[in-house]
Amino acid sequence: MKKIKFSLWLKQSLLFVARGPWVWSGYALFIGVLMPLGRTSLALGILITVTSLFLGVVVAKYIDLKHAGENPVGFYWAINKGLPLAVLAATSIMVFWFVFMLVANLFSGEYYKIIQFFFFWELTQENLSHRSMPEVASWIFSYANVCLLFTLLMLTTFASWFSYPLMLFKDYSWSQAIEQGNYAVSRHQAAIYKMLAFIFAQALLCMTITPLLTSVLYILTSTMMYVSYASLFEVAK
């Protein structure tokens, strides 16, 4: 198995986005509009962002098939195909997050914060006033960037970077996806670790300087997940 460099994956991902600019623009706008709901319910925000991340992998697959002239089905078929597994993954991440938060709040004695995980309306005049627009944007989207980092941490700890596409496109079981995914990671550690470091750096940047590009970072991450998967597990077209 030939070693692959991160720079190649990054270049391919950027070029890949250019294959379907209108699809990606619409998808980024759609999830960007939904992300502020996380400031009314963190549980809902996690479900929205993580589902959007994994569903973006299916959108990438749809664009790839369409570009290759091999797409006999429509966009909504692609969404329906990936949505159940994406929601399941998002629910798992939400449960992990809730458990960590529950333990922390029980130890700190801040029991009232437990219910706030499910509903806590933060889009108030008090939170939005006396802040510049960049500060408001950074505040609104900061949780989504933290969620992205948490999801990547959970993937690399309890699953694999390739688990979702392998389960979706190859019909692998959970254990098979982890086994094959971890094997691929072990063969291309340098490229994958650099890719994860790149995403982490961009997420930190989106927390401070470029918060309005958070949804763009999500679709770029989805694309990189698909491009890296396709380069290792699918026959090049």
> Sheet with the most strands?
none
Number of strands: 0
Query: Looking at the structure, what is the overall shape?
Result: globular
Cα separation of the termini: 18 Å
Q: Please tell me how large the radius of gyration is.
A: 18 Å
Give the SSE order as H and E letters.
Answer: HHHHHHHHHHH
Q: What fraction, in percent, of the residue positions are helical?
A: over 70%
Q: Mean pLDDT across all residues, rounded?
A: 89
Low-confidence stretches: none
Structural class: mainly alpha
Describe this structure in words.
The protein has 237 residues and is mainly α. Helix content is 77%, strand content 0%. The chain has eleven helices and no strands. It is globular, with a radius of gyration of 18 Å.
